[in-house]
Design brief:
Blueprint (H helix, E strand, L loop, with lengths): L1 E7 L7 H16 L2 E7 L18 E6 L1 H15 L7 E6 L5 H6 L12 E4 L2 E5 L2 E5 L2 E5 H8 L9 H12 L4 E9 L4 E8 L1 E5 L3 E3 L2 E2 L11 E6 L5 H12 L10 E12 L6 E3 L2 E3 L3 E6 L4 E4 L5
Length: 303
């Protein structure tokens, strides 16, 4: 058995390297016969995995956040020229969001090589520049603003988001765009105008502290879409934060919630970015649907 370990020392709170030295290294030595360790960013060749190593007996450990995960898996698929990645994947949550690990109930200090494993189909995000896999969410408006505008506070972990939330309550912004949603029954809805908030996700938690899509299930092929177009007053914005904190955002009468199989989002102004798994998308338009690829992930024992 072979372990491939990718460490993003710049991700989130920067504890990935310490975690590897103080815990993961011993776990790997006990359970695997061989390991390959890479610190990212690294050269393209460092993402290559041989065909003979691409099997479920081997494991891929990713030490970082949600953006690190999607980048590494995308690079491995491209560099190794694989149609399918067969390694089972452990996401060790040391980013600033860590939503995927939250959904999978991963405890990085209680790993088990013989624990639960589940297949996940990520979202495929297509832009003018190409396509990428997204294992969690796409956001636009106030959520993406909070993410991108607090980038310099990554070392503070989830606290950066609370700072961004307070700022968004005091200084709200609205952004113009159009979204075409294909529902699960193949009906199509077109929404255009000024958006305060947009989030699409294939899982309930988009970060450790934020359960934005409470009706979502990471093991289905549905895309949960939530957005707000209403001009919110100060008390509405406070109410939004309260319902978000109590995991009941879907109950607010000004939040629109859809179960979709596909959607297309186009920005009609240039005042904000679309963010996918915590990383900016440098495009004003995306088309998103469930990928036909599936990946095997380790889940927590309490799954």
């Amino acid at each position: 058995m072979k372990a491939f370990i990718y460490i993003n020392s710049l991700s989130g709170t920067g504890y990935g390297e310490k975690y590897y030295k103080n815990y993961l290294k011993e776990f790997i030595n006990t359970n695997f016969s061989e390991m390959v360790v890479q610190n990212i960013p690294c050269n393209t060749n460092d993402y290559k995995i041989s065909i003979s190593d691409n099997n479920e007996n081997n494991s891929l450990f990713i030490l970082g956040g949600d953006g690190t995960l999607s980048i590494i898996i995308g690079q491995i698929l491209e560099s190794s020229n694989f149609e399918e990645l067969k390694l089972s994947i452990y996401i060790c949550p040391f980013g600033s969001g860590n939503g995927l690990a939250k959904n999978l109930k991963i405890d990085p200090y209680n790993l088990s090589i013989n624990g639960n494993r589940k297949y996940i189909r990520p979202l495929k995000t297509v832009t003018k520049e190409g396509e990428k896999l997204s294992f969690l969410s796409q956001t636009w408006g106030v959520i993406s603003d909070i993410d991108t505008n607090t980038e310099y506070l990554r070392s503070f972990g989830d606290w950066r988001y609370y700072y961004g939330i307070v700022k968004s309550i005091i200084f709200p912004h609205y952004y113009n765009g159009v979204c075409s949603i294909t529902n699960m029954d193949n009906s199509i809805i077109e929404i255009e105008g000024n958006f305060y908030f947009f989030c699409s996700s294939n899982a309930p938690w988009i970060s450790t502290d934020f359960k934005i899509a409470p009706l979502s299930d990471i093991y289905t092929q549905e895309i949960d879409i939530l957005f707000i177009k209403k001009q919110l007053n100060f008390f509405d914005r406070l109410k939004l934060i309260y319902y978000l904190a109590t995991e009941r955002i879907h109950l607010l009468n000004f939040v629109e919630y859809f179960k979709a199989k596909e959607y297309n989002l186009k920005l009609l102004d240039y005042k904000s970015f679309i963010v996918s798994d915590g990383e900016k998308i440098l495009s004003d338009e995306i088309n998103v649907k469930t990928s036909d690829k599936k990946f095997l992930f380790h889940c927590g024992d309490n799954f």
